[in-house]
Amino acid sequence: MKTAITGGAGFIGSHLTEYLLASGDEVAVLDDLSTGSLENLADVRRHPRFRFVEGSILDRAAVDRVVAGADRVFHLAAAVGVKLIVEEPLRSLRTNIHGTETVLDATLDAGAILLLASTSEVYGKNASDSLPEDSDRILGSPLKSRWTYAAAKGIDEAFAHAYWKEFGLRVAIVRLFNTVGPRQTGRYGMVVPNLVGQAQRGEPLTVFGDGTQSRCFSYVADVVPALVRIAEHPAAYGQAFNLGGTYEVSILALAERIIDQLESGSDIRLVPYDKAYAPGYEDMRRRVPDNSKARELVGFNPKTTIAEIISNVAMSWQTVMRAPTAAVTEPAALAAR
Ligand code: UDP
């Protein structure tokens, strides 16, 4: 198979690149290196079936350099992370909407299959017990930049669905719920690398709000094979699939667990939301996936426990002998977000 991956130098994209090279694919990666990094691809840079193109998904010529001639395309490139989205809403909107449209057009012209990476953010503030894919979306005002990511990804999904319906594009959508693992950086606010890094450095773990908000973390090595199986399944086209963890944990309990497990001397610091984020920021209280659709179609059954996730993330930094990226740790700095 000839596979193109947009965002292949990012956290999930680089794991997918390695997985597909190991399965025998030719892999061409397009990445503008804005949040991704070549370090993530260090192990595959010299692989004979690997090709890297530096460029933006907003540039059709650059997209064609990886997509033309491909059998399938994994579209993972996006402006992600709360910090970036809140600080640069225009960039996030343009990249996530126009960039996806460019990738859809290029994939259609190439006659390839497309897997579109979307997000649990599309459900917004819907805090139901477990969210099936047809759940209603509860979004805040479009004038609050926090919601631009969810809005843009919702448009992306609608575009993909329309390309499937009107042009017959074979496109499947996955909604990723807090995927975590080695190579995810805390620089853009993600909680697991942030808290693990703080615990390893002996700094206070910054838990926003009262810490009762919860998430279901999924491990990248559980998610990546499911992306491939969904892209390969003809019954997936025109559909969306949740991919998330099965264990719901509050952020406070997560912080306690990290300290305990890493035998860290750190304590926990509760940071009020108005200090952690720009004023008016709204957090999601809870986000629990119903994975049954992906389980039934491709046998998605995430096995990695939260304890294994924490130790793998912690160990990955020790293995490469460098300290985890110092994330935003001080409330004063956080307020600047
Ligand atoms: N969070 C936290 N401390 C941090 C970073 C994040 O308490 O240092 C919280 C954040 O407010 C949210 C949860 O952890 O409630 C998950 O945040 P993340 O940005 O990882 O994912 P998302 O909000 O997109 O689910």
From TrEMBL:
Stretches assigned to coiled coil: none
Keywords from the UniProt entry: Decarboxylase, Lyase, NAD
Keyword Transferase: no
SUPFAM superfamilies assigned: NAD(P)-binding Rossmann-fold domains
Entry's Gene Ontology cellular component terms: cytoplasm
MF annotations from Gene Ontology: NAD+ binding; UDP-glucuronate decarboxylase activity
Sequence ranges assigned to domain NAD-dependent epimerase/dehydratase in this UniProt record: 5-244
Gene Ontology BP term (one): UDP-D-xylose biosynthetic process
Source taxon at top rank: Bacteria
Cofactor: NAD(+)
Protein name, per record: UDP-glucose 4-epimerase
UniProt organism field: Crystallibacter crystallopoietes
